[in-house]
Design goal:
The protein is built from 14 helices and 21 strands. By secondary structure, the protein is an alpha+beta fold. A hairpin with a 5-residue loop joins strand 20 and strand 21. Helix 3 packs parallel to helix 7 and helix 4 crosses helix 5. The N terminus is likely disordered.
Length: 550
């Protein structure tokens, strides 16, 4: 590599050069096209041309694009990240649903979603999901398959047919393997793309391509998609404006996923008449959050190394229990509205602990929502080899001292002082010293009794050795689910349920999990199954410009 050229510039330049070469080959007929009468809404020339355009190079995009290619279509990816795609799929646990019976799985999903997702959409997903192990074998993805049924809830019809596959090496290994398949096929990715705007035929409503900005360029590039466009732009977990507008509780700061998931697809789709669905839904629980993007962009998974701690709300009242908090549905109890303060009284919440816990070992250890039994590999921001520009982070210190000095941990010599420091912190101003002390006193009484009569926690230890500490907790962890509403063919639809021609979507941008996230491995399975459906659907279309020869 030439001295003075950064890794990012080199990779981005290589990608642009490759995509540009593909575009240049396709542009040979553009001069003739420009000489013909071009409708005012259509670009006079195209900077890139392809059959199927996939916006978003994450897990869903990978499946959509590779499937479309394997079905005989030329494919081009546009990716927001500067030099590496993968999205949250590349830094997660790598799980995906593998039901044994499609009809049972469809019924389970329909009931669990309380009918908010049509049965035909659930059935289309289930028909694909039973094939997930076969696709894993075909694409050389190493995995283990659970031997017993598993889903978030066992109360719905069909639960006994729900099983989960777990990719060996987590999302990192999945992305590396699928990215290699993409490279082997010669499918190009243009990185650093943003502010896309779909190009729509005003007479037919067909989507014929998009405009995009690349890097710092001020001039939009026109990208032609002769067959269709597939939106795989992920969730909006890093867009505070959209969170405040749509989510049931706010703010949700504790997300650990792909920091480029800012809800871009929502505006893109709305501008061409798309309906939205499942905008209030989240897959997540709680994580610590420190408002320190210079170090880490979002939430950090923490847990006490000793039992000398409790969780309290912003007023100082104990609630909930980490031991039983779900990483997929545990965010819901945070939506507890308190009339006295006219706000959610559990955002933020706090882990309150004493010197015994502080000195007992690392509170963080591993970042990204994964438990410490993951063998040190890590997911989320701790994914091995994840570049700091993409959110990668070395992790928590062994003795918690760095985090204390950084201000991530709040300290007080006494509980009164701790409450005062919390009340004047940047996170909150509602902490009540009397309530906090009463919560700690009650906890210590329960420890003496040997049973947690209030919340049923099993591991118990007194909070009595000063100084005392607190870490802020916010709902978050995985991802939002809402996005463009789609039908069983992954075709984006308008508010009347009518398909918008040549526009498809897949993944967390419009995940089918309505009402609640109910399917273990549901995010991965959504990417795998709906990604394939979208790629297949788009590839099956005839080119909109075939008749004109453009």
């Amino acid at each position: 590599m030439q001295e003075g050229i950064s890794r990012r510039s080199f990779l981005k330049g290589s990608a642009l050069a490759a995509a540009g070469a593909a575009g240049a080959a396709a542009l040979s007929g553009c001069t003739a096209q420009a000489e013909e009468a071009t409708p005012s809404w259509m670009p006079a020339t195209w900077d890139y041309e392809t059959d199927v355009l996939v916006i978003g190079y994450g897990g869903a995009g990978l499946w959509a694009g590779i499937t479309a290619y394997d079905e005989g279509s030329q494919v081009l990816f546009l990716e927001k990240a500067p030099f590496r795609g993968g999205g949250s799929s590349s830094i997660n646990m790598g799980q995906w649903t593998a039901p044994h019976d499609a009809d049972a799985a469809a019924q389970f999903a329909f009931e669990a979603f309380h009918g908010q997702t049509p049965l035909e959409v659930c059935q289309a997903w289930a028909d694909e999901a039973v094939q997930n192990p076969d696709y894993a074998e075909e694409y050389g993805l190493e995995y283990t398959l659970g031997e017993t049924p598993r889903a978030e809830y066992d109360i719905f019809t069909g639960y006994e047919e729900m099983y989960v596959g777990a990719g060996t090496g987590y999302g990192k290994a999945f992305f590396e393997a699928m990215d290699q398949h993409r490279q082997d096929r010669g499918i190009d990715v243009v990185f650093d793309c943003h502010d896309e705007e779909l190009i729509q035929n005003p007479e037919t409503n067909e989507i014929v391509g998009c405009y995009t900005l690349i890097g710092d360029d001020a001039e939009k590039k026109a990208v032609k998609a002769s067959k269709g466009v597939i939106l795989c732009t992920g969730g909006f977990e890093f867009n505070e404006e959209l969170q405040a507008k749509y989510l049931k509780c706010y703010p949700m700061r504790g997300f650990y996923g792909w920091k480029y998931n800012e809800g871009d697809g929502i505006k893109i789709a709305q501008k061409v008449g798309a309906d939205l669905w499942h905008m209030q839904q989240v897959c997540g629980g709680d994580d610590a959050w420190f408002d320190d993007p210079e170090i880490v962009p979002g939430g950090v998974s923490v847990s006490s190394p000793t039992p000398n701690y409790i969780k309290v709300n912003r007023l100082g009242e104990r609630w909930g229990e980490k031991d039983t908090s779900s990483p997929h549905g545990g965010w819901k109890p945070y939506a507890n509205f308190n009339e006295e303060i006219c706000d959610f009284d559990r955002i933020p919440s706090w882990y309150v602990f004493d010197q015994t816990s502080f000195e007992g070992g690392s509170w963080g250890g591993m970042v990204g929502g994964a438990a410490k039994e993951n063998g040190g590999m890590g997911i989320g921001y701790m994914t091995e080899g994840l570049d700091p520009e993409l959110g990668g982070w070395e992790g928590w210190s062994a003795d918690n001292v760095w985090e204390l000095e950084r201000g991530w941990i709040t300290q007080g010599a006494t509980l009164d002082e701790l409450a005062a420091n919390l009340a004047k912190s940047k996170w909150d101003d509602k902490m009540d010293a009397d309530k906090l002390k009463a919560s700690v006193e009650r906890w210590n009484e329960l420890v003496d009794k040997g049973v947690d009569e209030d919340f049923g926690r099993e591991e118990m230890g007194k909070i009595e050795t000063g100084p005392f500490y607190a870490i802020p907790l916010y709902p978050g962890i995985c991802n939002t689910i809402g996005g463009a509403r789609r039908n069983e063919h992954a075709n984006v639809v308008d508010p009347d349920g009518e398909p918008i021609p040549r526009l498809y979507s897949a993944g967390s941008f419009g995940n089918m999990n309505g009402h609640t996230y109910a399917i273990t491995g549901g995010n991965g399975s959504e990417n795998w199954c709906v990604g394939r459906i979208a790629g297949r659907s788009a590839a099956a279309l005839s080119a909109w410009d075939a008749a004109e020869g453009k």
